[in-house]
Design goal:
Length: 235
């Protein structure tokens, strides 16, 4: 499964590069593909915008772009434009836009309602909901996409299967955006969704790769929380 990662012009290269470097560690049938110009070498500017909660880069993304709400179709239109520019992208390849711009539905990410395999992930404002580097919730959203499209046919099916009460599952609806942290701390899929994935005979190697990524996200989120506690106790 090919997953093409598209960096919105407003999303800093060094943040995008961090995500690609983490993804390289996890081998399997899911191939994350990106343009080399989007992972340019580190610069002095990169070092001053280090990706930490409350950091300069976070504030710029939150204030300039996170509060600008675009229609979903504007995001998915950029995915279609990317497909037109690269004739080697197949119809069954995923195209995922990383964007600091908000969206009028106020979702963290979404699948194109048309059924095309286009997605977006909002990359700004994560520090308002999660006590972790923003790359980890973004990677979580990305990693669950292959699981979702292997189990459900379209966004309508995903929405129908979503959980109003949070379970620590990728299909938690998260009406209260702060509930998203439970997903990250769990790094798992609820029993009902696991049963559905088994029934749909999801590729075991794909599942192994994705769960490896989710385990890594979980470890990093828990480490951040525990580090804060142990530092206070040692003081």
């Amino acid at each position: 499964m090919n997953v093409h990662l598209v960096r919105g012009e407003e999303y800093p290269r060094h943040r995008f590069r961090t995500i690609t470097e983490i993804l390289k560690k996890f081998k399997g049938p899911v191939k994350f593909i990106y343009r080399e110009e989007d992972i340019a070498e580190k610069t002095e500017e990169d070092e001053t915008e280090y990706d930490m909660p409350g950091g300069y880069g976070n504030r710029i993304g939150n204030e300039l772009y996170g509060n600008i709400l675009l229609d979903w179709q504007e995001h998915f239109g950029k995915c279609e434009e990317f497909r037109r520019q690269d004739k080697e992208i197949k119809q069954d390849d995923l195209v995922v836009l990383f964007t600091d711009y908000g969206n009028k539905e106020n979702w963290f990410s979404s699948w194109d309602p048309s059924g095309n395999l286009n997605f977006f992930i909002q990359t700004s404002r994560w520090d308002e909901f999660v006590e972790a580097r923003s790359c980890y919730p973004i990677i979580y959203e990305l990693a669950t996409m292959p699981l979702i499209i292997s189990t459900w046919k379209n966004l309508d099916e995903v929405t129908a299967a979503s959980h109003d009460e949070p379970r620590g599952c990728p299909l938690d609806y998260c009406r209260d955006k702060r509930e998203v942290e439970l997903r990250l701390r769990t790094g798992d899929v609820c029993p009902a969704c696991l049963d559905e994935m088994t029934r749909k005979k999801i590729d075991p190697e794909l599942a192994k790769q994705v769960f490896g990524i989710l385990d890594h996200v979980r470890e990093q989120v828990l480490f951040k929380k525990r580090f804060a506690v142990t530092r206070q106790l040692s003081g």
